[in-house]
Amino acid sequence: MSLKSIQIQTFNIAHVKTKVKFNENIEMDFVPIDAHNGSRAVKYGNRVDYFIENVKGDFEILKLEHIDVVNTLVLYSNDSKTFYTNLPLTDRTFELHIRRL
After folding, report:
1. Does the reported pTM lie above 0.85?
2. Residues 2-22 pLDDT 10s
3. Judging by beta carbons within 10 Å of its beta carbon (0-12, 13-18, 19+), is residue 101 exposed, middle or buried?
4. I need a surface site. Which of 31, 62, 78, 88 has the fewest CB within 10 A?
5. In the β-sheet with 47-56, what is the strand arrangement from edge to edge?
6. Residues 75 and 62 sit within 8 Å (Cβ to Cβ)
């Protein structure tokens, strides 16, 4: 594995869908969803997870760290395309690590 193939992007997200773009060939949308029922109708204070959609590019997600909580690693399910944070919805800063394939 070449270290050059690993890329890291830091981004902020709140209550709306957020595009995370590494370059013109690699991007995705993070969508806050209710952690209890998967609904996209979320309000500040609700516990949320993040669904990934509109994926563009050939890459593997390695990890997502929650920067605001001392670099806490967030669990990810490749099958459901969901990051499980179960955190109250508020402004958050994450760091996404991927490997280009």
Report:
1. yes
2. 556 899 999 999 888 999 999
3. exposed
4. 78
5. 6-13, 92-100, 59-66, 72-77, 82-88, 47-56, 26-34, 18-23
6. no
Tokens encoding 28: 């995705």
Domain-by-domain residue ranges, the chain?
A: 3-100
| CB 72, CB 65: distance < 8 Å | yes
Partners of 13 in beta bridges: 92
36 in helix, strand or coil? coil
Average pLDDT, rounded, for the chain: 90
According to DSSP, the β-strands at 18-23 and 26-34 are antiparallel
- % of residues, the chain, pLDDT over 90: 68
CB 33 within 8 A of CB 48: yes
C-alpha to C-alpha distance for 95 and 101, rounded to whole angstroms: 19
